[in-house]
Amino acid sequence: MLRRLVLLSLVFFGLKAESQQWCIDYPSDENVSICLIGGDMSHEYNYSVGFKYNQMTGRYSPVALCIDEAGNYNDRSYHEIIEKGYFCYALGMGDGNAFVVARCGNDVENEVYENLWVAVINPELEVVAEKYIEIEDPYVSYGYTIHALINNDNEIVVVTQVTDDVTMVSGDSYDYAFYKIDYDCNLLRCSYLKNTSSNAGITDFTLVPNTNIYAVFGDGMNHNNVESVFYIDDDLNFISCTLFDDPSNYPNFLFPENMCVDYWFDEKTFLMSAQSSRTTGVNKWKPLVLKMDVDMNVIDVLDLERPDTTYYVSQYRSMAYVDENTIYVSTYWHRNSWNEYLPNLATIFLMNEKLELLGRKDFEMEHFFNVLHVQPTSDKGCVVQGYVDDGKHKKTLIFKLSKSDFEISADVLEYDCYDVNVYPNPVSSLLYIDIENLNKKSLSVRIIDELGRRYLDKDVVVDGNVISLDVSTLSNGLYFYQIECDKDKCINNFFVKE
Question: What does pTM read for this prediction?
Answer without folding.
Answer: 0.79
